[in-house]
Every structure is written in C-alpha cells, then in structure tokens.
Amino acid sequence: MELAGRLDDAYRRLAARLVTGCGTSGRVRVEAGDDGRTRLHLGRLDAVGEPLSLVELRSTVAAMLPLVDLPELLLEVHAWTGYLDEFTHVSEAGSRMEDLAVSVAAVLLAEGCNLGFAPG
Predict the structure, then answer these.
(1) Where are the alpha helices (DSSP H) in the chain?
(2) Residue range 62-98, pLDDT digits in tens
(3) How many CA atoms are closer than 13 Å to the CA of 119, on its beta-carbon side?
(4) What residue ranges in 14-94 does DSSP mark as E strands?
(5) Where are the domains of the chain?
C-alpha cells in the first residue's frame, strides 16, 4: 500500500504542476472529455537549432570520408573476407552459376535499399 500511496502522490503533484503550467510554457494541458475521461494534450516543441560546433563537425567528418560506391564496397569486402561465399542455397547444394558473389551482393544491396527484385 505504501507504493500505491507514493505513486498517487506523485501523480497528484504532476497534475498540479500541469494545471499551473509550471515548466511547461502552456504546451501541456489536462482536460476532462465529454465522456468523463481525463486527457493529456501535449503541444509541439519549438525547433532547436543546430549548434555551430555540430555543423563544423559534420562538415569535417564528411570531408574525411571518401565517396564510395556501395556495390564496389560490398565486393571489395568480399575479396578480403569471402563472406559472400557463405551464402548457400537452402538445399545446401552448390551453385552452377558463375560469379554468384556478384549476384548475392546485388540481392543484398537491393534488399538493403528496399528496392526488391523488380525494376521500377
């Protein structure tokens, strides 16, 4: 019962703060609806501008990163690690297709970008 009392007290203090607008700048309202239920209305927050340090950091990091073609990156990582060879058919049979790694990379890229297999 002690926890229920503490929770009820916390709710009542919060409701009192919302009614007086303490710290909410009028963005929060508690209203009783026609159906007898109490509703909490939250207003939009004002946009916060980006600090100059963030803008500078973003441009510095962007300048440091090379422009990379994603399909080339997938194939280059495959050349280092061979990870595309780990994809197998559900039957675990080998593939007769040449350059299967290129096709698997294409599927990964299409699915990762939500493109799917069909054009358009």
Answers:
(1) 2-20, 52-64, 70-81, 100-112
(2) 999 988 888 889 999 999 999 888 887 677 676 667 7
(3) 0
(4) 28-32, 38-42
(5) 2-42, 67-120
